[in-house]
Write a structure and sequence with these properties.
The protein has about 1400 residues and is an alpha+beta fold. The strands form nine sheets. Strands 8, 9, 10, 11, 14, 15, 16, 17 and 18 form a nine-stranded mixed sheet that branches. Helix 10 runs parallel beside helix 11, helix 11 (about 310-325) crosses helix 18 (about 515-535) and helix 18 (about 515-535) packs across helix 20 (about 560-590). It starts with a helix and ends in a 24-residue tail after the last strand.
Length: about 1400
């Protein structure tokens, strides 16, 4: 403990004061001396120059030149040394003479061994001249930080010179005297030294440790330069006084005393740099820039945080109209036309900006929306989701309508004629509607209204259901809540702002002012956007504005518009202060504090005298929007540095480990990613997708209560516990981030989960007695306890689509030999089923190699006597021959073989010695031998048997017997028969426990396997197809999981069923979350507390301390899933869309479009504004992910078990709205993989488009499957907010070339299809394991696609191409639709 404190003092406190220098006993003497002398030089040189030489600019120039030369020399040598290590030219020498090889003397027994050779590196001084350097890279890294590029070196030298120049310039100006000169030189030295060496011990403002953070080195000098420029500028403004003083709310701005006072504050702040960085009050420069832009956009323009450029552009456009309007003469009872135009543009632009997220993708797509062929290939910025396109199309119409209506209302002079009474009527109406909508209704819908009632007054229909059975029903109070919000946002508050604008403009028209016009423009833009985005907070702001400036202090009023603007800023800070004080008082309440360590008990008494300072810190933290975090989790609070709403600097999101991002050898040997947390993270990813479609609509319907940007909610169910952080709240959009916690959490997490899920209705206590309570009313103790919590339950029955998870221990299900025998029997029957169903059966039966290899099994007395076969597990074991024989096999399974053969469309010989029976026998023997080999020939033991079963389940078939090598004649015998047989056998074995005698009849067993094949995906969890199936909402899935961690080594059978789940929604105090996150960052990064059982993560039910701290970014926390920033749009919520109708658009139905065939989702392009059909995917959703494209050629054995499409039914596979794989049919000896439907560019439907594709790509075209992250090009990341995330990554030739212009054919497959050009391997990999994402235009009615077969050079098979063939003749009545025509069969999956 003492050494840790000493280390913190030396490497933390002292290093923060000096800019990074401290004595490190673990480094060499040279390194410590170099750091010491450099720091002393940087400190004393400017101090001696100032004290000895007369102050002049020449001295400042000399000082800057010396600093530049020293830094240039150090940076150059450091860069060259690292380049020397990278090149690795090693010189070996054995004596002092360099360059002359020495003959090695003979060594005798009594002689000493020659000295070991010394290695050095070649350091090139000049071309042809070098010297040897004996140094190590690690020693150099300990001496100086590495700068990897020329720009970084130039930036370091430039910043050091700029610090020297600006610092000495302030000394010349005489801003510092006496001891403060030395203090200022200390600040200069610390800023310059941090450019040379940033110690591995980070400062309190550092983010989570993720390697070397080069931004930290530039933070202190950049802040110093900004402060110096600010001091010089304020002093110049105070002396020159270029602006006339302005009086606003009793404060005189822009006067000489104002500038000089601000200069003195900046000067003191600069002198306090060592202590500011010691306490970590300033963030990194990039974080500070994000924070400033976000605060200006939110509080200055009413934006959502990241759209400052759009806000400035809109304000600049509106400012000209406003200035011209107030300078225009106003008649007594009339409004100038220019002012009415300004009002119309203001409301329309505010409406449009409020409906746009901070993602600038939509700006790039505005000119492309009208294109007839919009190429949407791969890159995120080239793809605009359908829901966002609908928003743009709707805004195009609504903004014009809003502008015209606002112009008409403003020009009608209603605001001037009724200004004496209209204002108060609007204020009263806004207050009454806001109080009823945002206070009364949410309180009546809470789980504990006013913390007095034990049940909500307005209950959803699912409240009394023990288990929800469907989607949540829209109640009458939800419709009322949504309708009142519309009235409030689109009628009342625009009228309030327009009335204030008109009255204020009419008042200032007599003395127009440019500044006044700017303030009116900014205030109107901010208030309208705030009303559109966050109406729950507006009625209180309006009420306080009226009370303060109309009744309490009317003489301070500067016009209602500016008063409202000021009060909105003040109220936002007061809300922050209220949340902070609630968090502090809840956290340190003595009757419920939980001491997690001895330090907590020691620090508790010191919290009492700390209270006054705590209140001051709360005021400052509320003013600057900084977290207030508990020190080491104790009752002592300190202020942290400012952070944006996103909080975390890194764009961290979980990368799932599966077979797409691990080597094959690791998959077979070590099975990476087999821990529960990695496997369970997919359920949180699916939960994120579900929330992406429904969250915004549910918030609008009031199902989560009142909300705002920065709010945090906890979703809790039986096994899912996730923290949802709202980052951005707009008008019809919400950007959020989900953080999933462990399924099997720690003891502390379980205690807090119990606290948020248990009810308090049974509590009957009142102080120390139990007198009971009234019906549906909380007791005194329960009501008191609920008021002292940092969280509250807003909904106890929130319905969301997800997966119910059931896991069974495989060991208990296969413990006895009889149960294993049942599994082996189903294994054999499944193999027979897949053999008889295979379209390649005739080819296998006629194959000479296979027939020759299986001919001996028909000999009398033949039996396979492998040691793995046993009477205890093999039902057809021949005891007489001590092995597996064909007669014994036929005695048990011949009836099943004959029944399966009879279900084929083509008749096959079914006798006991027929080729079909022989092939089934050979495959069944091979499959059982493979199971025995994987079990290390110890199938009698349970653990080896489970190990072998799991190996076969994930596709690890190892053929070791020469008698089984005939299977290599066609690998589909393993991929399409044996591998799916293992998985189907496990499912049938599961069903055996519910109804043991159900599958006695062959017909029942056959139908059961066919049904499971249609609706169920059976796959290993490491297979990318497992993730694709879950994200595409497959109804049912099954997997065999091997859980291997420190405490357990067991096998589980995982069964997933898609259904509607019930969650409890808990709203957490957002300042509690921010404070605890900041406390963890300070404790782990700055104080280096590595104790896994530290007191700050122990359970504290009143603040959910453990759950919140465990949701931090890794390595501070340990969430099993962190989503990227995900945007949910209101248009993707089906219930809200049905309630309000679809978006208004100018799109008209296109005549002649054909309807897709039955079983495929309808392309409902003709219905504008209507709710989506049951089969069509909702707008903004990702296209269904195909299963066929998720399997690589080498991993076919590990692919999920899928079946064929039934006649007239929907495509099966992943269970999405579009099919993923239909029947496979033979085509020139190769299988044709059918994919799901293509999606039309208009985004409102999908149409079948493409012809069949061959199963193998030609040589030379590389493809790979990557499901660890969404589909992205080589350029950069792709988040969910950029569009639907797909699970493949293709590297075809056309992807590596520059994109073609929109509308051109080029190499884009969708543009080539639209232009009627053929598709070839150069443009699209039709048969690769992963197809790129592309969309198609709807086909023209009556056009057909003719198919041709071309063979690219070096390929074995033909390649299908498509070309528009003109009018398609009508087929004769009753004729089947051709497979290549439009509207027939599924098309390529947009994956």
């Amino acid at each position: 403990m003492g050494s840790q404190v000493l280390q913190i003092l030396r490497q933390g406190v002292w290093a923060s004061l000096t800019g990074g220098w401290f004595f490190d006993p673990h480094q060499s003497t040279f390194s410590n001396c170099f750091h010491l002398y450099v720091w002393i030089f940087l400190l004393t040189f400017p101090f001696l120059l100032y004290m000895v030489l007369p102050p002049s600019l020449m001295v400042a120039g000399v000082y800057c030149l010396v600093v530049a030369v020293i830094f240039t020399t150090i940076k150059t040598v450091n860069y060259r040394l690292h380049a020397m290590f990278d090149q690795g030219e090693i010189v070996e020498k054995r004596n002092s003479t360099m360059g002359e090889p020495e003959e090695e003397p003979e060594q005798t027994l009594m002689e000493e061994a020659p000295p070991r050779a010394q290695h050095s590196y070649k350091y090139w001084l000049l071309p042809g001249r070098w010297t040897s350097v004996r140094y190590e890279r690690l020693a150099l890294l300990a001496l100086l930080d590495r700068t990897r590029g020329l720009v970084e070196n130039i930036l370091g030298v430039g910043l050091s010179s700029l610090v020297a120049f600006l610092g000495y310039l302030l000394l010349l100006k005489g801003f510092f005297t006496d001891i403060w000169v030395f203090q200022f030189c200390l600040v200069i030295a610390s800023c310059q030294y941090s450019l040379l060496k940033v110690r591995p011990y980070p400062a309190p403002h550092c983010p989570a440790p993720q390697g070397h953070n080069w931004v930290i080195a530039y933070s202190r000098p950049v802040y110093f330069c900004i402060c110096c420029v600010l001091i010089w500028l304020l002093d110049a403004l105070g002396s020159a006084q270029p602006f006339p003083p302005v009086s606003l709310y009793g404060l005189t701005l822009f006067s000489a005393s104002f500038f000089f006072c601000a200069r003195d504050v900046a000067t003191v702040f600069t002198l306090c740099f060592p202590f500011v960085f010691l306490l970590g009050l300033l963030p990194q420069v990039n974080t500070c820039l994000m924070y400033l832009l976000e605060q200006i956009d939110m509080h200055g323009f009413g934006g959502t945080g990241m759209g400052l450029s759009r806000s400035l552009l809109a304000a600049a456009l509106l400012y000209g109209f406003c200035l011209g309007a107030i300078k225009t003469p106003w008649p007594e009872q009339h409004v100038p036309v220019l002012f009415s135009v300004f009002c119309g543009l203001l409301v329309a632009l505010s409406y449009h900006l409020s409906r746009q997220s901070s993602d600038p993708t939509v700006l790039w797509w505005v000119p492309a929306c009208a294109r007839p062929c919009a190429c949407v290939c791969l890159h995120p910025r080239w793809y605009l989701p359908p829901a966002q396109r609908e928003v743009l199309h709707s805004d195009l119409v609504m903004c014009v309508v809003i502008a015209v209506l606002t112009f008409a209302i403003s020009a009608s002079t209603v605001f001037i004629a009724l200004k004496s009474v209209l204002g108060f009527v609007l204020y009263a109406l806004a207050g009454a509607v806001g109080f009823f909508t945002h206070y009364l209704l949410p309180q009546l819908r809470k789980q504990l209204p006013w913390f007095c009632l034990s049940q909500p007054v307005l209950k959803p229909s699912e409240y009394s259901q023990y288990e929800v059975r469907g989607a949540a029903q829209v109640m009458w109070f939800e419709k009322l809540y949504a309708s009142l919000q519309c009235v409030e946002k689109y009628l009342i508050y625009p009228a309030v702002v327009l009335n204030a604008l008109t009255v204020d403009a009419h008042a200032v028209v007599s003395h127009p002012d440019n500044c006044r016009a700017l303030l009116m423009t900014v205030a109107g833009l901010k208030l309208l956007r705030s009303a559109f985005c966050c109406p729950p907070q507006q009625y209180l702001t309006l009420a306080f504005t009226v009370l303060l400036f109309h009744f309490d202090y009317p003489r301070l009023s500067q016009g209602f518009l500016l008063d409202y603007f000021l009060m909105s800023l003040l109220c936002s800070k007061l809300w922050d202060l209220l949340y902070k004080l609630r968090f502090v008082l809840t956290y340190i309440a003595p009757w419920q504090i939980t001491w997690g360590s001895a330090f907590h008990a020691f620090a508790q008494p010191f919290a009492v005298p700390h209270s006054a300072m705590l209140f001051v810190q709360a005021l400052l933290s509320a003013l600057f929007s900084t977290p207030l975090n508990p020190l080491l989790g104790s009752a002592v609070f300190i202020m942290s540095y400012a952070r944006p709403l996103k909080f975390w600097e890194r764009d961290y999101n979980t990368k799932r480990v599966d077979h797409s991002n691990t080597r094959l050898v690791t998959q077979l040997d070590r099975n990476p990613g087999a821990d529960d947390n990695n496997l369970n993270s997919i359920f949180y990813e699916h939960l994120t997708r579900s929330l992406q479609h429904t969250l915004c609509g549910d918030l609008v319907l009031g199902r989560w209560g009142n909300y705002g940007p920065g709010d945090c909610f906890v979703l809790a169910s039986d096994y899912l516990n996730a923290l949802v952080h709202l980052i951005e709240v707009g008008n019809g959009l919400v950007t959020f981030q989900l953080r999933g916690l462990e399924f099997r959490g720690t003891y502390c997490q379980q205690r807090e989960v119990e606290a948020i899920t248990e009810g308090v209705e049974e509590d009957e206590g009142c102080c120390c007695c139990e007198p009971g309570h009234l019906p549906r009313v909380l007791s005194f103790n329960a009501a008191f306890g609920q008021r002292w919590l940092a969280w509250e339950v807003t909904a106890s029955k929130y319905v969301l689509e997800g997966y119910s998870i059931s896991d069974n221990n495989a060991a208990s299900m296969l413990q006895v030999f009889d149960l294993r025998k049942i599994l082996i029997t189903y294994y054999v029957k499944s193999i027979i089923y897949y053999v008889s169903r295979s379209p390649k059966l005739e080819a296998w039966l006629s194959h000479e190699g296979i027939a020759a290899a299986l001919r001996p099994v028909r000999a009398p007395g033949y039996a396979d006597s492998d040691p793995t076969f046993s009477l205890s597990v093999d039902e057809d074991y021949d005891l007489r021959l001590s092995g597996l024989s064909l007669p014994a096999f036929c005695a048990v399974h011949l009836e099943w073989i004959q029944y399966c053969a009879s279900r084929r469309s083509q008749a096959v010989d079914q006798d006991w010695n027929s080729p079909l029976v022989t092939l089934c026998f050979g495959l069944c023997v091979l499959g059982r031998r493979a199971l025995g080999t994987a079990s290390h020939s110890m199938s009698a033991s349970l653990e080896p048997f489970l190990y072998g079963l799991h190996a076969l389940f994930k596709g690890d078939f190892r053929i070791t017997s020469p008698r089984d090598e005939w299977v290599f004649a066609d690998m589909d015998l393993l991929h399409r028969v044996v591998a799916p047989g293992v998985r189907m056998a496990l499912k049938l074995h599961q069903d055996h426990f519910t109804s043991p005698d159900e599958y006695e009849e062959p017909a029942a067993l056959y139908d059961a396997i066919a049904a499971n094949e249609e609706r169920l995906v059976i796959s290993h969890e490491g297979d990318p197809a497992w993730r694709s199936a879950i994200l595409s909402n497959t109804p049912s899935l099954l997997a065999l999981r091997h859980v291997l961690d420190d405490a357990s080594d067991e096998y589980k059978i995982i069964m997933l069923n898609r259904r509607h789940l019930s969650f409890r929604v808990i709203k957490v105090n957002r300042e509690c979350v921010r404070g605890l996150w900041a406390g963890q960052q300070q404790e782990l990064v700055f104080l280096r507390n590595r104790n896994p059982e530290r007191g700050s993560i122990q359970n504290a039910k009143q603040a959910l301390r453990n759950m919140i701290n465990s949701s931090c970014d890794q390595p501070l926390g340990y969430p099993i899933y962190v989503s990227p920033l995900t945007t949910s749009l209101a248009g993707s919520h089906p219930q809200l869309r049905a309630l309000w109708g679809g978006p208004v658009s100018l799109t008209f139905p296109t005549p002649g479009l054909q309807s897709p065939p039955s079983g495929l989702p309808a392309a409902d392009c003709s219905q504008v504004g209507s709710a989506p059909s049951a089969t069509a995917p909702p707008p903004g959703t990702a296209p269904p992910l195909g299963g066929a494209s998720a399997r690589a050629v080498a991993g076919e054995a590990a692919g999920p078990q899928r079946g064929r499409r039934p006649p007239g039914g929907s495509p099966r596979g992943t269970g999405g709205s579009g099919g993923v794989e239909a029947p496979r049919s033979g085509r020139t000896g190769e299988e044709v993989a059918w994919r799901g439907p293509g999606w039309c560019v208009c985004g409102r439907g999908s149409l079948p488009r493409s012809p069949p594709a061959p199963s193998e790509p030609p040589s030379g075209l590389q493809s790979r499957v990557s499901t660890s992250s969404p589909l992205r090009p080589a350029g950069g990341p792709h988040s969910l907010r950029d569009g639907p995330a797909l699970s493949g990554q293709c590297e075809g030739d056309w992807m590596r070339r520059p994109p073609t212009p929109l509308g051109g054919a080029g190499d884009c497959p969708c543009c080539r299809l639209c232009a009627g050009l053929p598709l070839s391997w150069g443009s699209l990999d039709l048969g690769a394991a992963s197809s790129p994402a592309f969309a198609h235009r709807p086909p023209v009615s009556g056009l057909a696609w003719e198919e041709t077969s071309v063979a690219p050079p070096g390929s074995r098979n033909g390649v299908m191409t498509s070309r528009c063939a003109g009018k398609r003749p009508a087929p004769p009545p009753g004729a089947a639709r051709p497979s290549g025509s439009v509207g027939a069969g599924p098309a390529l999956s947009p994956q």
